[in-house]
Amino acid sequence: MKKVLLLGAGLVTRPLVRYLLDQPNIELIIASRTVSKADALLEGHPQGKSVALDVKKEESKLEELVKTTDITISLLPWIYHLKVANYCIEHGKHLITTSYVSPAMKELDAKAREKGLLFLNEIGLDPGIDHMSAMKIIHEVKNRGGKIISFESVCGGLPAPEDNDNPFGYKFSWSPRGVVLAGRNNAHYLKNGEEVKIDGKNLFTNYWRKEVESLGELEVYPNRDSMIYQELYELWDSKTIFRGTFRNIGWCETLYSIAKMGWLDDNERNELENLPLKDVTAKLLGADKTEVIKKTSETIKLAEDSRVMSNLKWLGLFDDIRVKPEQWTYLDILSARMQEMMAYQKGERDMIVLQHDFIAEYPDNSKEHIISLMIDFGIPNGDSAMARTVSLPAAIATKLLCEGRFAGITGVHIPNMPEVYNPVLDELARLNIKMKDSVAKL
């Protein structure tokens, strides 16, 4: 019996917990600040145990938990992963995370190898399934003597079409803060041999539409630094390397206007406490609240009857509505209102869309356009597609690690090796989470 420690009991963890509890040779210990959340996930299962843990304050307890288990899965915020990883090094334990590999985590590679440990990161959806499904095709092309000369990968979490019923075309299953803050991210990618760099303030002005099978057109905007994938995926011959995010039509223009107004300001401002949204918007723009609509129109340079202004009105930014954010910043006030207006209701489904586009070239000068597409839907009144696609890859990797399937793989890794991605993708397909590939000759 292998003992697995799960740190965190957030919204995406349920599919992972249920999957691991179905394995006869795994005992699962869930450590969470709110132990009732862990208990709800375990549902009294005899192979599960809950423990109260505040990772900020109870370092010795965290260390003891790592020490007395075989594998640690950290689904904590990424800022805690390094602390957990160091305890894993000290006590000779494997580590699984769904987060991006930080420079500090990467520096632990030699120590992990020395101890014969696997620290498998980025084993979720994006990053995770995107890596595995992309590398499978890249390796297949190379094994046939070909090379990838163009690579584009776009992923997004959206409402299922039948539940896409608000003007933003988006719904949140948790706090919108992080999603909205994407408007600050710089972007960097390669397009037809030319590097493109976009400052965060202009991110949402650099978008375009892409046709997706069975869904129609969606908006695409760049997702951070795509250039690092040249090395990660060994795309040395590729003239285009682009990673992006899917959203429904209208999202980018609206979010650009929201950022332009100043709503992404996260400095605490006590003077905003308990003010109606109309007054908050007026303060943000330095306007009289009686002219807040006019001032907004002037600030974003769009007509008062424009689609974006209609969206802002629907959100209630010009109304006498009060919200209670976690803290009194413009960003948190906006996030709290978005959470109220754009949450999934009982019985509604979310949807994950992931599409890779490759152009492959072969020694006889023939070319192929390969499209690899996954559309996964949440289960009404059950697990969301986001929860399934983020947590099940980590759960499967944990099971395989317990079974000794990754023997000989040590150090800090992402799932870009056939020994890892093949069995994980096979098991995901068994759970009906799979890519659909199509090939067209060019």
Overview of this protein structure:
The protein has 16 helices and 16 strands. The strands form 3 sheets. Strands 3-2-1-4-5-6-15 form a 7-stranded parallel sheet, sandwiched between helices. Helix 7 crosses helix 16, helix 11 (277-285) crosses helix 12 (292-300) and helix 15 (385-402) packs across helix 16 (418-430). With 442 residues, the protein is α/β, with parallel strands linked by helices. The relative contact order is 0.16. The chain is globular and about 70 Å long.
What's the quick description here?
The chain has 442 residues and is α/β, with parallel strands linked by helices. It contains 16 helices and 16 strands. A seven-stranded parallel beta sheet has the order 3-2-1-4-5-6-15, sandwiched between helices.
End-to-end separation: 53 Å
Stated plainly, the CATH topology of the largest domain is called: Rossmann fold
Shape: globular
With helices defined by DSSP (H or I, 4 residues minimum), what is the helix count? 16
What is the fold's blueprint, element by element?
Elements: E1 2-7, H1 14-21, E2 26-32, H2 35-42, E3 48-52, H3 59-67, E4 71-74, H4 81-91, E5 94-97, H5 103-106, H6 109-114, E6 118-120, H7 129-143, E7 147-159, H8 177-181, E8 187-191, E9 194-198, E10 208-212, E11 216-222, H9 229-232, E12 240-247, H10 251-261, H11 277-285, H12 292-300, H13 307-315, H14 330-341, E13 350-361, E14 367-377, H15 385-402, E15 411-413, H16 418-430, E16 436-441
Parallel strand pairs: 1-2, 1-4, 2-3, 4-5, 5-6, 6-15, 7-12
Antiparallel strand pairs: 7-13, 8-9, 10-11, 11-12, 13-14, 14-16
Helix pairs in contact: 1-15, 3-4, 7-16, 10-13, 11-12, 15-16
